[in-house]
Amino acid sequence: MPDTPFAPPALPMIPIAGSGQMFPVRRVYCIGRNYADHAREMGHDPDREPPFFFQKNPDNLHPGGQFPYPPGTSDLHHEVELLVALHSGGSAIRPEAALSHVWGYGVALDMTRRDLQGAAKKAGRPWEIGKAFEASAPVAPLRPASEIGHPARGAISLAVNGTPRQSGDLAQMIWSVPEIITCLSAYFTLAAGDVILTGTPAGVGAVGRGDRIEAAIEGVGALTVTVV
C-alpha cells in the first residue's frame, strides 16, 4: 500500500444478484437520446444524429432505496435505462466481438437535473452539472449474462406512485449494445469494470420528495427508489 496523505476512497461497487459478490466499477459511460421517441420528445430528429456520449462518476452509483433530492434544481427527472457491465475491453472492438466483453446487465436510473442540463445545453456547455451529481445513478443488483443471456428485446418501463410514465422495448434502441461498445471503443480504451447506460424511452418527467419510482426491464430485473 503506497503512503498517502489520507485514506484512499472506497472503490465504487454494484451488488450482484443472488450472490455476496460485488462488481467493481471503473468508469460510467452514458449514451444520449438512444430511443427515437425520447429524442423527439426532447426536440431532436433521431434520423440525423450519430451517437454521442457523456459520463457520470463511478461514485454517483446508488443502490436504490432512498434517493436524496439533489440541491440546485426544481426540475428533477427520471430516466430508466439498461445498464451493461463489462468484464474486459480494449480499443477498436468489432461489433461481432462486442458481447464477449459483457459480464452482465442491470436496471439503472439516469436521474437528471433537467433545468440545469437545459441551461448548459443553451450555453453550449458540458452537461455534468445536470447529470453527474451525488446518487444520480441508482442501480439494481446486476445479473450475469451467463444466466440471462444478452437481452436485445424486452419491455422497459417506469412508474411513479403506481402511474405508468415510461414504456418501451429494448429492441427500440437506435444503437444496439454491440454498436454502442464498438463506437465507444473507437474513442476510449474500455476495460473491466466499465459500465454503460444505454438510453431511455419516452415519458421522462419530474419527480418530487415523497415520490416512489418503480423501474423494470423484462428478463433483467427491477429497481425501486423513494425520493427523500
What's the CATH first level of the domain at 13-63 and 79-152 and 170-202?
Alpha Beta
Strand arrangement in the largest pleated sheet: 4-3-15-8-9-12
Count of individual beta strands: 18
For this structure, what is the CATH homologous superfamily of the domain at 13-63 and 79-152 and 170-202?
A: Fumarylacetoacetase-like, C-terminal domain
Helix content: 10-25%
Spell out the helices and strands N to C: EEEHEEEEEHEEHHEEHEEHEEEE
GO molecular function, one term: metal ion binding
Organism: Szabonella alba
Protein name: Fumarylacetoacetate hydrolase family protein
Domain Fumarylacetoacetase-like C-terminal: 28-228
Question: What would you note in describing this structure?
Answer:
The protein is of the alpha+beta class and 228 residues long. The protein has a domain at 13-63 and 79-152 and 170-202: Fumarylacetoacetate hydrolase, domain 2, CATH 3.90.850.10. 16% of the residues lie in helices and 32% in strands. Strands 4-3-15-8-9-12 form a six-stranded mixed sheet. Strands 6-18-17-13-14 form a five-stranded mixed sheet, with no helix packed on it. The longest helix has 10 residues, at 114-123. The protein is globular. The mean pLDDT is 94.
Sequence-ordered SSE layout with sheet pairings:
Blueprint: E1 13-15, E2 22-24, E3 28-31, H1 36-41, E4 53-56, E5 61-62, E6 65-67, E7 76-78, E8 80-86, H2 95-98, E9 102-109, E10 112-113, H3 114-123, H4 128-131, E11 137-138, E12 143-144, H5 145-148, E13 155-160, E14 163-169, H6 177-185, E15 195-197, E16 205-206, E17 212-217, E18 221-227
Parallel strand pairs: 3-15, 5-11, 6-18
Antiparallel strand pairs: 1-2, 3-4, 7-10, 7-16, 8-9, 8-15, 9-12, 13-14, 13-17, 17-18
